[in-house]
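[09:14] KT: can someone run the structure on this one? pasting the chain below
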Amino acid sequence: MIKKRPVSLVILLLFAVCTSAQKKVTPVTSNYPTDYFRNPLNIPIFLAGNFGECRLGHFHSGVDIKTKGEENQPVHAAADGYVSRIKMEKGGFGHGLYITHPNGYTTLYAHLNDFAPAIQKYVRSKQYEKQQWNVDLQLTASQFPVKKGQLIAFSGNTGASTAPHLHFEIRNTKTEHPLNPQLFGLPIEDKIAPVPVEVAFYGLELYNSDYHPNIVPLTKRENVYKPKQTSDTVRISYVKLGIGIRVDDYMNGSDNTLTFYTAKLYLDDTLYSQITLDDIGYDESRYINAYVDYKTKQIDNKWIQLFFLQRGNKLDRIYSGLNADKGYIRLHDNETRKVKILITDENGNESKIEFYIADSLIKLSEATYSSDYGTFSPGSSNVFDDDPNVRFTLDENQLYDRVRYKFSKLPFDGAYSDKYQIHYPYVPIHHYFDLKIKPTRPVPFDLRSKITMMYSDGKEEEGSAAAPVEDGWYKCPVRAFGTYWLDIDTIPPVVKSAHKENANLAKAKQITLNVKDAQTSVKKFNGYIDDKWVCFEQHGSAFFYKFDEHCSRGKHKLLFKAEDENANATTYTLTFTR
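[09:31] RB: done, structure tokens below
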């Protein structure tokens, strides 16, 4: 039998549910102007990415605004100012436009297609003047002044973009540091709290690259996230402990995962470490490799963000509240500590994690290693000369933590040197170093300019031109551990056309070619129509020329030239009618 509840009780319950669902969330307090910049688009802001998100080799430096999955949405100046820079590049931001504002900030609009007509005409004239499409133009305040809301460009999918969107940044003009755009009052609806997924524990007396952390899944119970296990206590086998978290954030109207704004770790109710993602310079961005668990990302594809500061991590400004141990926790025998973590986004939505850590009474000791391991340390110069045919030096700024490195070699008859395994790709390097390798068989004189240093991370192979140096050595700047060897590259790039010979392109908007090189990359390229240079652009392996006033109606002959890093050149011709 179903019992009927009184109408008054039902109304009270509905009121309570609605009141809870409409609970007002207070955005975080900002020191930035919150009524100065407008939405750069004429459509509501839904984010595909936000500031401080973890990306390979860098923090995301702005917000990615969705454009309904379409290109060519009108883009408008976020405030009064002037166009101060325009940069065209095959990767990165693709077509990027910068506006300098009188209040000390600069905005960037990236992955664009075309600019507003007057700006587009200026850029194209400079490209033809320099006879190169990838230009970096600095402009004066009098050339293109703009008003708030003025059309400046059209959104696109250029550069290192995988789907149509607008990348938007607000920078400090003086320092050039990107700032968190969500702190400037942009109209973004977000009532969804971050979702903690896992917490990770690291034994910091060990060599971090030699083991996996203890990763504990989290589950939500009574509005608090706790370990997904029978007990709220995590047993720890480490004397010196570090904690990391994996968190996904979301916003209304978008299914993309975002990152948090602040993360605070409390130990026994005392703030122990805080992360704030609001100001990260481009010169600091690569320290993301020390801010996250790089190995776990490479192997398990998980972004775990660390509450402790690795000794080689110089991006300490995003951390606050650190003790003398820089976020490390020392757990003594028979000791139990309470841990609380608060995660917030820019709109003030908050999630809480709570658990205890306790001594397991069984301590892990450093592993023993065979003789094929050596040691590299951050903060000092590390010279490798263990093999007569391999040399390199890592300076004091290239490592984030101690490394027990492995070196081995495998004879390789199909190349000009043995294959050398120089540790593992899951251990990061901060900046480039010169790797030198000596051939293990003679290189013919006419092929000495064709040597390529090949690299494998165990999944893919790629190469770069190697330069000859003293005593028969070859060197190449590299920025990763992995397997290296020397080979010969005499094969020019291969050009494939989307058009047939004598094609009628009267209705086409552009000529498109696909150009790939087997071992290295396309270093130089130029296109000529009837012996006159035309502006071909590169986007990945696609090279295209959009028809303009430099190609009239009628019959024409295209000549396209491409050259790789080892000066292997190819030419391609196409007769067409426009």
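[09:33] KT: thanks! DSSP finds four helices and 46 strands in the chain.
[09:34] RB: yep, looked fine to me
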